[in-house]
Fold this sequence. Notes:
Helices cover about 25% and strands about 30% of the residues. It is of the alpha+beta class. A seven-stranded mixed β-sheet has the order 1-15-17-18-13-12-16, with no helix packed on it. A five-stranded antiparallel β-sheet has the order 3-2-10-9-8, with helices on both faces. The radius of gyration is 26 Å and the shape is globular. About 45% of the residues are buried.
Amino acid sequence: MKFRKILIGSLVTASFLSLSVSFKTKFTYFNAKAEEFSAFNGIKEEKFYENDDNFGLTTTALTNSPLKLSAKSAFSMEYDTETVIYSHNENERLPIASMCKIMTLLLCFEEIENGNLSLEEEITVSERAASMGGSQVFLEANAKYQVKELLKSIAVCSANDSCVAMAERISGDELLFTDKMNEKAKQLGATDTLFANCTGLPKEPQYSTAKDVARMLKELLKYDKYYEIGQVWMDTFQHPKGRVTEISNTNKLVKFYDGCDGGKTGFTNQAGYCLAATAKRNNLRIISVVIGEENSKTRFNDVKTTFDYAFANYSMKNVVDCNNPLEEKAVISGAKQKEISIKPSKNSNVFVKRGDKAEYTIETRIYDKLKAPLEVGETVGELIVFKDGVEIDRLSLVANESAQRANFFDKFKDIAKNWLLK
């Protein structure tokens, strides 16, 4: 195996880094002034779509953090690396109200990806689904609705009736669907989560944590189709008999915060005001969750505060670009060509605090005794990223071109060429 270690350089600022790892070059970056975000002027709450009752909760502001939040529990992390930016009682088991619909949506998109459901499919709504209380889109019993419209109503206006309709379509029964929700939570490592239904309406026992909710939202964000509905601000929901319901996103940040493109609100007397949301600026995505807020305005302001803090104080560096082949080549035995170009299998991003002066280096390890044939994308080695000498990432090196097996005539030409060179 061939080893090579390369100095990337000192990362000092938020400047974007696109690096070909084959050059022994030291790069210097200059401090960029952190963005100053305008103050949040408050958000008009449209209470029609929430399970809205008066709620009072006394909480204490954090003392060991630059952030001052009023949530009973809170958690904020960077999306790619899951680096924790802020946490407070993040593992405390609490009711999360309609934020449990993150899991409901996740299972729906998973069924679509697996080919068991399509966005264009029409679902017949049961009497039970149509009779759900709380936030709803007022589905008509025994009427047919497209899956994509039902999912939109869940993401936008937190429709309980649409949740039950989807649960019955996927599992035949809401209780069976809830079992799937709990099973998926375990798969994701959300060990402090227990669902009792697919809506988040009060029913004991049910609970989750701010950290688990962030983990579930991250999984949902892997589905590109979610963003098409998650950031809808206002829309018209069409019923089969001509009736329409105007829907408005309960997550006001999709309208009032630059970069927010998804999330889910929640409210019950037991849970208080809750919000899980995500925002992306440049190549940095943040996920933030608050549980048990005193009112709707504080939940939005607290999540906004975590977003502002993250974007002002941190940045994401691309230290390895998978689109840049290395100068180094992989030697292939028995191939028409003796060497092929190689590249990293994926990008390597480093989440850093602005002003970070750590030294980053890359080590490449190309496998010995590689034999033809090799196809594009096959693993030929590995690349390791170090921060101040400590490994922080490891990814595969792959063939950037194919290597065909040499035939008799290719070998004869090589022999003749070598003979002539003597």
